[in-house]
Amino acid sequence: MVRQEDIERLINMRLSQLLLVAEAALPSSQFQAFRKITLNEFGNNGLGMELERLLGEKNQHKAR
């Protein structure tokens, strides 16, 4: 069974690499904006929340 923590760990590893490349390529002010948007989209209020909902629904279907 796939756990949410495992998915989030894989996403965070790649997200770290993405942010490192963006930091090297963008001016500081643009990087800060990119970082904020990226973390919002992939963090607990974005993808994290969607994963929780999706995996919760999947577990509910199994319980039936």
Break the fold down into its secondary structure elements and pairings.
Elements: H1 4-25, H2 28-42, H3 47-63
Please report which band the strand proportion falls in: under 5%, 5-15%, 15-25%, 25-35%, 35-45% or over 45%: under 5%
Mean pLDDT across every amino acid position:
90
- Fraction of helical residues: over 70%
Distance between the termini: 17 Å
**Number of individual domains:** 1
Count helical runs: 3
Rough outline: elongated
- Could you name the ranges where pLDDT drops below 50 across 5 or more consecutive residues? none
Order of helices and strands: HHH
The largest pleated sheet is described as: none
Structural overview:
With 64 residues, the protein is an all-alpha fold. Helix 1 (4-25) runs antiparallel to helix 2. It has 3 helices and no strands. It has one domain (4-63).
Question: How would you describe this structure in keywords?
Answer:
mainly alpha, 64 residues
Briefly, what is this?
The chain has 64 residues and is an all-alpha fold. Helices cover 84% and strands 0% of the residues.
